[in-house]
Write a structure and sequence with these properties.
It contains seven helices and ten strands. The protein is an alpha+beta fold. Strands 1, 2, 3, 4, 5, 6, 7, 8, 9 and 10 form a ten-stranded mixed β-sheet that branches. Strand 6 and strand 7 form a beta hairpin. Helix 1 runs antiparallel to helix 6. About 0% of the residues have low confidence.
């Protein structure tokens, strides 16, 4: 009986953790990516939104708010796989409102390098720690950032680093975004908004998905990945 309970608790706790994480990282109603992720990129994209597409997404009558993100692949160590560098609007003083932070966040002060928030994989692979510095390649130059917090990321096994898009633009100059999050007006239907926007996009490779679709796909992937644990749980029940 103890073996049964232990197995069931383990699998259920993993799934609940992923579900709660998805709720935190998918606060918008609709998500748009400029192009299909390149093979093996695990988060990077191969195209960006032009000014016309940005205006279209932001000014649609059923879109209450649009937030644009730049998602790049950068190399921190030539001997390791590339990591995701994500530039998005983020409040330095309230990063926990946008990211599922683990532990205490650094109180950023003027005079410090720009803040960066790293995923747990960056801590494990590169030894990053809160309050320490991390060097990121930005526009072909090595730039120092201070690690302001560590966040949970179940989507990118090689790690991800988030910086404020204003800091990135100051260092690299204006860069077209690769992803967008859309908050819809009350009563708006996500499927209808997607059907109206998609054929009008200049970026023909743009991919639209509602938060519910992404969440359902992610949980299906989780269930497939943990299929062996369900088999073990059945075995534990039989043994019990």
């Amino acid at each position: 009986f103890a073996l049964m309970v232990a197995m069931a608790t383990m699998v259920a706790s993993f799934r609940v953790s992923v579900d709660q994480w998805l709720e935190r990282v998918l606060p918008a109603d609709v998500y748009v990516r400029a192009a299909t992720a390149a093979a093996g990129s695990l988060g990077g994209t191969t195209a960006a939104f032009g000014d016309a597409d940005q205006r279209l997404l932001a000014t649609h009558p059923q879109v209450a708010r649009a937030e644009f993100t730049l998602n790049l692949k950068v190399t921190l160590d030539p001997a390791r796989a590339a990591v995701s560098l994500i530039a998005r609007p983020i409040d330095r003083a309230q990063a926990a409102r946008k990211l599922p932070l683990e532990g205490e966040a650094l109180a950023w002060r003027h005079g410090m390098p720009p803040p960066a928030w790293v995923s747990e994989a960056i801590v494990d692979l590169y030894g990053a720690s809160v309050g320490g510095e991390i060097v990121l390649p930005v526009a072909g130059q090595a730039r120092k950032f201070i690690v302001a917090g560590v966040w949970r990321d179940y989507a990118r096994q090689f790690g991800a680093v988030v910086v404020d898009i204003a800091d990135f633009a100051r260092l690299a100059g204006p860069s077209p975004p690769t992803e967008a999050a859309l908050w819809l007006a009350p009563g708006a239907n996500a499927a209808e908004v997607i059907a109206e926007l998609q054929p009008r996009m200049q970026a023909r490779s743009a991919e639209f998905a509602s938060a519910g679709e992404i969440r359902a796909i992610s949980l299906r992937i989780f269930d497939r990945s943990f299929a062996v644990t369900y088999v073990l749980e059945i075995a534990a029940i039989v043994i019990g």
